[in-house]
Design goal:
about 475 residues; Amino acid/polyamine transporter I; 18 helices; transmembrane helix; membrane
Length: about 475
């Protein structure tokens, strides 16, 4: 049993450049906004308050710096792979060419967890902000239609509806989806900059004391939580086959979107904890709006709700998009049924896969209460970052002659820093999160041996024969 068989990197490069059925329509600007669309959302509008109150206090700014460093090192590794191998599948595809099929399967299975649960969690967050906005306008939705059965309702209908709308948009085409994403990013960036411009005048430095109420360990645990706020830049690499000039534009989109968002996160968290004492954010799901209310700027608080809805919508769009492209890549390799890689003749999108993904996410969002989803999503993402970083190091030694349009600086040290930072953040997550993650990965191993191993497109004929005989 050859679990470590690898895809030919040369064939992957040729395929991404000449043979893909997906339409190439995206440029560097689209990719940067796609990254910002995926990154700025639930993290900045929800998690900042929780992380400050329960983990880091005003030192939340350092938590964002640490999480940003971990992502920054990993982003450089992603940029090298994405420019070299512009094929759908992101970390799954890169691992297939460097670490072998079994490791690639595990990474793909972890990415399915990341994008699927992130999409469900984000749509539930969207529903909460939507309900608040509607109530602010004087309308009241029935509690039975905005809560899952476990929460005393029948279905979280707004969450279901927004998932189906985004799914319909993605099934029509990436160009149309990118236009909607670009508009939404403009709206939420305007709101974030408005908050910074108004809020900076109401900062009281006394609120930053004590700066580290939970100590250094609080900063690290805060970083492990707010890491969720950075998830998304890796989704840019899933668009590789739909980029007009991937060798140049993918590194620009990945690195620039992460840099912009990191700066904004640091500034916003500093202003938040400067306006409102960190302890007052406990149990608050809309910390940015609360800060504006404390500052007496209720008109800005109203805009924040609009910006949050726009921001969370773009995150949902990119997460579902990333999920469908990972399914697409794994199906095309034979590890999942071919249904997931069929391309619509008119829209040039994996139409069936997109709708199947959307319906599953809508069901989870509508009927399942989300508890520790953020932590599970973080663990799946961090594991992908670790393997991509290791893959860059291995490929430098295995294939030093390859022409790399973008070279990760400081190899092997930069990818090693990514591995160390990510491993430390993984160790900061609760044991229950690890337990659920290991159960999910165990299910993935079973699926691989029952289906993926015997259906793999790169399996040698003798392997297929032996498998059938056994």
């Amino acid at each position: 049993m050859n679990l470590w068989r690898k895809k030919s990197l040369d064939q992957l490069i040729e395929f991404g450049q000449t043979k893909s059925d997906l339409k190439k329509t995206l440029g560097a600007f689209d990719l940067t906004l796609l990254g910002i669309g995926a990154i700025i959302g639930t993290g900045i509008f929800v998690l900042t308050g929780i992380a400050a109150a329960e983990h880091a206090g005003p030192a939340l700014v350092l938590s964002f710096v640490l999480a940003g460093l971990a992502c920054g090192f990993a982003a450089l590794a992603y940029a090298e792979f994405a420019a070299l191998c512009p094929v759908s599948g992101s970390a799954y595809t890169y691992s297939y060419a460097t670490l072998g099929e079994f490791m690639a399967w595990l990474i793909g299975w972890a990415l399915i967890l990341e994008y699927g649960l992130a999409s469900s969690a984000v749509s539930i967050g969207w529903s909460a902000y939507f309900v608040k906005l509607v109530e602010g306008l004087g309308f009241h939705l029935p509690a039975t239609l905005v809560n899952p059965p476990a929460g005393g309702g029948i279905v979280n209908l707004p969450a279901v509806i927004i998932v189906l709308i985004v799914t319909a948009l993605l099934s029509i085409g990436i160009r149309e989806s990118a236009r909607v994403n670009n508009f939404m990013v403009f709206v939420k960036m305007t709101v974030v900059l408005l908050f910074i411009g108004v809020g900076i005048w109401y900062v009281k430095p006394a609120n930053w004391i004590p700066f580290m109420p939970y100590g250094v360990s609080g900063i690290w645990s805060g970083a492990a939580i707010v890491f969720f706020a950075y998830i998304g830049f890796d989704a840019v690499s899933t668009a590789a086959e739909e980029v007009k000039n991937p060798q140049r534009d993918l590194p620009i989109g990945i690195i620039s979107s992460l840099a912009i968002c990191t700066i904004l996160y640091i500034v916003v968290s500093a202003i938040l904890t400067g306006i409102v004492p960190y302890s007052q954010f406990r149990g608050v799901s809309a910390p940015v709006a609360l800060a504006m209310q404390v500052a007496g700027q209720n008109w800005v608080a109203g805009f924040v709700s609009v910006g949050a809805i726009a921001g969370i919508t773009t995150v949902l769009l990119v997460m579902i998009y990333g999920q469908t492209r990972v399914f697409f890549a794994m199906s095309r390799d034979g590890l999942l049924p071919s249904l997931f890689s069929k391309v619509h003749p008119r829209f040039a999108t994996p139409f069936i896969s997109t709708w199947m993904t959307g319906l599953i996410i809508a069901f989870v969002a509508g009927f399942v209460p989300i508890g520790i989803v953020a932590e599970m999503v973080n663990l799946g993402t961090l594991s992908a970052f670790v393997f991509v970083s290791i893959g860059v190091i291995l490929l430098r030694y295995q294939r030093p002659e390859l022409k790399r349009p973008f070279r990760c600086p400081g190899v092997p040290f930069t990818p090693l820093f990514a591995v160390l930072f990510c491993a430390f953040l993984m160790g900061s997550l609760p044991w229950i999160t690890w337990k659920l993650f290991l159960i999910w990965m165990g299910v993935g191993v079973v699926v691989y041996f029952l289906y993926g191993f015997s259906h793999s497109k790169i399996a040698a004929p003798v392997e297929r024969t032996n498998t059938s005989e056994e």
